[in-house]
């Protein structure tokens, strides 16, 4: 394959260069210029989050030998700033290398506070949507499509 070459005059000297290499270099330079220009009008937007000074951390629920966690997966609610409700997973603790330390018997629990989070009471709510009743309900789902 014969490569196309062009002649360029650089600093008074006649040079030959590979056309494909010149195109690659030109494309790279264009992308670098566009990338740089894309940040010219960027400004750091201020957030509306308020910094909480002197935040106090409290234990919401504790039970020996149990894994209790993942409130972000279950939600937290407060309608009036006084009464609070937090969902979490309640399961058997099982030391597992390279994974979460949760074993079987997992259920969704709630913790409720009526004094702005100073004290909490954890409980397993009846007919909670995340528990699917007794046993594993998920294996019944394909059958629902055929009924």
Number of strands: 7
Percent of residues in beta strands: 25-35%
Q: Label the structural class.
A: alpha+beta
- Span between N and C termini? 67 Å
Number of separate helices: 3
Helix content: 10-25%
Gyration radius (Cα, Å) is: 31 Å
Q: Any low-confidence stretches, pLDDT <50, length ≥5?
A: 136-147
| Oligomeric state of the chains in view | single chain
Spell out the helices and strands N to C: EEHEHEEEEH
Largest sheet: 5 strands, antiparallel
Q: State the shape.
A: elongated
Mean pLDDT: 76
Structure in words:
The structure is a single chain. By secondary structure, the protein is of the alpha+beta class. The protein has three helices and seven strands. The strands form two sheets. Strands 3, 4, 5, 6 and 7 form a five-stranded antiparallel sheet that branches. The protein has a two-stranded antiparallel ribbon with strand order 1-2.
